[in-house]
Each structure stands twice: as C-alpha cells, then as structure tokens.
Amino acid sequence: LAKTTQPISMDSYEGQEVNITCSHNNIATNDYITWYQQFPSQGPRFIIQGYKTKVTNEVASLFIPADRKSSTLSLPRVSLSDTAVYYCLVAGLSGGYNKLIFGAGTRLAVHP
Amino acid sequence: EAGVAQSPRYKIIEKRQSVAFWCNPISGHATLYWYQQILGQGPKLLIQFQNNGVVDDSQLPKDRFSAERLKGVDSTLKIQPAKLEDSAVYLCASSWRRLREGQETQYFGPGTRLLVL
C-alpha cells in the first residue's frame, strides 16, 4: 500500500489560495488519490478524488502530474472555516478490498 | 440523506471496565468501518465489514476488542476490559461502492469520544 507524505502544518490568510502537496512515490496503477477534511470533534469528510490530471469540484481542485507520484490539493480563496486537518490518502486494494490508510494529515490554520 | 449515526457521543469509564459503541450506517451502504483516532493522529482502521461479514480485522486487538454487524446494517464495537491507552475517538464510516474499485468514498459519523481513567 502506498504511503503518503504531506506537511504537518500550514498557515494562510483569508482570501488566499492554499496548495497542499502530498507525495506518494509508491502509488500503484489502480490506486486513486483521495483527500479528506476533518474539523475538530467531527469525522473526516470527503473533499475530492482523482486518478490523473486535474479534477475540480465546488470545493477544491486536485492536480496530479503524469507520473502520479504526488498530488496537490488546491483550496481557492480560503476562509476561517477552512481551518481543519487535511488528509491525503491513496486508496489501494489489499486482499481484494479497498483499504484507506490515514497519515497524520496537514493542519491548516487560516488567519483573519 | 441521513448521515452515519453513532452513540454515545461521549463515554468516561475506568480501566478494566467494558464499553460498547453503536453505529447506524447510511441506508443501503454495504460496507462499514470502525476506526480509532488517538489525539493528534489520523484515524486507524480497526475492522471492516462487507454486509455482515468481516473483510479486514488485522489491526483489531482481538484480546479485548470485538465487533459485530448483525443483519448487515447496524454495528457495535465493544472493548472489554478497557485500558488507559484505549482513550480515543472511535469513528464509524460506511460506503456503498463495490470494494473492488479504488473510487470508494467513505462517509464518517461524528465519532464517540472515549476517556479511560
């Protein structure tokens, strides 16, 4: 299963664009890249998922280069409510079933 | 659509006591997960069910933890006896996609915060 590496913490200010990069050098051919967001006292919430190139939804964009060894979550114009922990995961098959392995995540603090 | 429900939200017990957590997944979701999240860490998978069968329990401390999912819907996770290091948030999640696809999306409940004294 692919391990992921992402910054422990990041700081930003309201209105700025935030980019969080995740490394996953051992990603397998069938693996998808998924990002979750977690607020204090809540369970993680799915943000975005992709396989290659670029994916965009109403919340974020996900950029994946051709070699897929890294990915970048882009949050446009962050607000204070985007302060949370962001997890990068590579969903891989293990024993024929998907298995999510969470790392420590990136703690994003958005300041006024 | 109702989300994943968990109860209780908080529980305080003394070590060596037993405790049980309950989870009701989103209707129609065949796959159910229990995670343990220690403060400052990411969630760690304890057990994964597909309908009422166990898919993966490799990280479940089976000497003290047990889980069941009768009838393939609700699930309970039990700890007996509890240790101090079991203090954590226990998260339940569910998904509906077939597990053989990497595009699975898991929906998490609010969790149960356990404190063992």
Short description:
Chain A is 0% helix and 52% strand. Chain A has 112 residues and is mostly beta strands.
Structure description:
The complex is a heterodimer of chains A (112) and B (117). By secondary structure, chain A is mostly beta strands. Chain A is globular, with a radius of gyration of 14 Å. Chain A has strands at residues 9-13, 18-23, 32-38, 45-50, 53-56, 61-64, 70-75, 84-94, 97-99, 106-111. In chain A, the strands form two sheets. In chain A, strands 1, 3, 4, 8, 9 and 10 form a six-stranded mixed β-sheet that branches. A four-stranded antiparallel β-sheet of chain A has the order 2-7-6-5, with no helix packed on it. Chain A has no helices and ten strands. The model of chain A has no long low-confidence stretch (mean pLDDT 90). Chain A is 0% helix and 52% strand. Chain B has 117 residues and is mainly β. In chain B, the strands form two sheets. In chain B, strands 2, 4, 5, 6, 9, 10 and 11 form a seven-stranded mixed β-sheet that branches. Chain B has a four-stranded antiparallel β-sheet with strand order 1-3-8-7, with no helix packed on it. In chain B, strand 4 (31-37) and strand 5 (44-50) form a beta hairpin. Chain B is globular. The model of chain B has no long low-confidence stretch (mean pLDDT 91).
